[in-house]
Amino acid sequence: MTRPAPPNSAGFAVEFAGVSKRFGAVVANDAVSFGIGAGAIHGIVGENGAGKSTLMSILYGFYQADAGSIRLRGQEARIRTSHEAIAQGIGMVHQHFMLVDAFTVLENIVLGVEGGALLGAGLDRARARLAQLGRDYGLEIDPDTRVGDLPVGVQQRVEILKTLYRGAEIMILDEPTAVLTLQEVEGLFATLRRLRDEGKTVIIVTHKLREIMDLTDAVTIMRAGKVVAQLATSQTSAAEIAELMVGRKLEPPRRAAATPGPVVLAVENLGLSDARGVTRLAGVSFTVRRGEILGIAGVSGNGQTELLEVLAGLRAPSAGRMLFHGEDLARHYGPDLPARLRRLGIAHVPEDRHGAGMVMPFTAQENAALGYQGDAALGPGPMLLPGRLALRCRRFMAKFDVRPADPGLRASLFSGGNQQKLVLARELDRDPELLLIGQPTRGVDIGAIEFIHGQLLALRAAGKAVVLVSTELEEILALADRILVMCAGRITGELAAAEADEAKIGLMMAGMAA
User: Fold this and answer.
1) pLDDT tens across 425-452, in order?
2) What interhelical angle do 119-137 and 152-165 show, nearest 10?
3) Within a 10 A sphere around the Cβ of 58, how many other Cβ atoms?
4) Helical H runs in 232-319?
5) Beta carbons of 289 and 263 less than 8 angstroms apart
6) Who contacts 451 (Cβ-Cβ below 8 Å, separation ≥6)?
7) Which residue has the higher pLDDT, 380 or 314?
8) Cystine design at 288: which of 87, 149, 294, 390 (Cβ 3.0–4.6 Å)?
9) Comparing C-alpha atoms, which of 139, 104, 150 is closest to residue 123?
10) 50 Cβ contact partners less than 8 Å away, ≥ 6 residues apart
11) Are 368 and 377 in contact (CB under 8 A)?
């Protein structure tokens, strides 16, 4: 039974009344009705494809509802574009930031609101306003730094400042902690609480239930395009929210005791320097065996990404060896190495599914063949037959519960979790001996997390080897048989799963012995 959260005494900042949106045969929002209290932090959760992002895109003017209405501060609002949303005090920080890397912080802040053809005076006013906002909300930043040179957490700060500079009183944040370190998450939460205390309304779209419980005042749960509950956070639990999200009780993954077999991959003194001569990996050595999951933990930016790229053949190491069944893969580096590794039985699910795992304008069936387009089953010679592509993709979709099950739909129109399941289906279809997988559940809902974790444990049970890179310590502890910790491009510790906990791993992540 739905238990509505009581509105803030100031009333509702946003009210959705019967909002519906359809994309062809897919109903994204189905008569959605609920209110968001003014001066509150409100969470919106649900499985991938539940309609959360579509609803927020309607509020921000990216989409138009097919039916229903939106009221802002008690008045019906007409929001046809993002410019109209901004004019009515709505700001949005997207999961994939909308910044120009080559521009400075100041240039990104004023982009689109420059204030006339003569930029000098406008930039001076913007600089002063930016400094004041930084002091008010603890978001100080050098306005002349090029955005592309900033770490991800600071880029997010720029996005928040950009919305505040435009006068946002209602702020939407989509998966705001997906790529942040623990310290950056704490800083973000402090900022959001300060914004709430200043009377602003903050809407968080996230899959991380711990964050919902720690941060929000109320939470709306969506499933299959509908609102199934609206709860005061203080009156619910993460377990209840999870069950409402997926419509059933979730079970933790069952991991039998590991029985590792022979070494599949041996990495010896691996080193990597980037184009500027900066050391990214130094003296990295480890082994992974059949029938085990080797977890690699660390704060983002400490070499895990580069390690996975080297192992997958995307970067040439500057030192060391990688022995796959005794053969040194490092000797064969070249543009054809990733394809050669696939033929040898090494599959790769990259950290960045948008940048490296899929081609977003391609259809699902085209993405399901990426990297395996030479398969004779897909067509003769260089020709790929659409019917065969669609047949393979339908098989993937059925096995991995990809929704909607439409092979002809563009990849960009699937939710993040369904994109991830499609990439995983493609890479596991060949029954690889070694799976390299980075951030497998980043931006993925709790139901899809359960499914993906189950697939990784099934691979392990089948005697395969898995190298898992994740910044989520809960994920590492739930799946890994052995855990390596990286800091500044080096292995700073190794723990058996039975000996590991977040405190020990955290010390190693900081470069200190546990």
Assistant:
1) 999 998 999 999 999 988 777 888 888 9
2) 110
3) 25
4) 238-246, 304-311
5) yes
6) 400, 401, 421
7) 314
8) 294
9) 104
10) 222, 223, 224, 225, 245, 445
11) no
Residues in the chain: 514
d(CA 393, CA 364) in angstroms, rounded, equals 7
DSSP string over 422-456: HHHHHHHTT--SEEEEESTTTT--HHHHHHHHHHH
Instruction: Find the angle CA(506)-CA(509)-CA(513) to the nearest 5 degrees.
Output: 80
User: Could you tell me the two tokens for 73?
Assistant: 């501060």
Which long-range contacts does 211-217 make (Cβ < 8 Å, 24+ apart)? 211/177, 211/185, 212/43, 212/45, 212/238, 212/241, 213/237, 213/238, 214/189, 215/41, 215/43, 215/189, 216/41, 216/42, 216/43, 217/5, 217/37, 217/40, 217/41, 217/42
Largest CA distance in the chain: 70
Q: Report the C-alpha gap between 480 and 266 in whole angstroms.
A: 18
Give the sheet arrangement for strand 327-328, strand by strand: 279-289, 263-273, 319-324, 327-328
The per-residue pLDDT for range 22-33, each reduced to its tens digit, is: 988 889 999 999
The DSSP bridge pattern shows strands 465-469 and 434-438 to be parallel
CATH number for the domain whose boundaries are 261-345+433-514: 3.40.50.300
How far are the Cα atoms of 209, 442, 505 from residue 482, in angstroms, in the given order? 26, 21, 12
* Residue 388: burial class (beta carbons within 10 Å; 0-12, 13-18, 19+): middle
Per-residue model confidence (pLDDT) at position 7? 42
Q: pLDDT of 460-510, one tens digit each? A: 999 999 999 998 888 999 999 999 999 999 999 999 988 998 888 878 887
Amino acid at 145: T
Neighbouring C-beta atoms of residue 226, cutoff 10 Å: 16
CA proximity to 416, closest of 450, 454, 448 = 448
Hey, where are the domains in the chain?
12-246, 261-345+433-514, 353-429
Q: State the DSSP code for 334.
A: S
H or E element, residue 338: helix 337-344
Beta bridge partners of 46: 222
Topology agreement, domain 12-246 and domain 261-345+433-514: yes
CB hemisphere CA count around 283 (13 angstroms): 5
312, two tokens: 């997958």
Is-contact 219 205, C-beta < 8 A? Answer: no
Task: Report the topology of domain 12-246.
Answer: Rossmann fold (3.40.50)
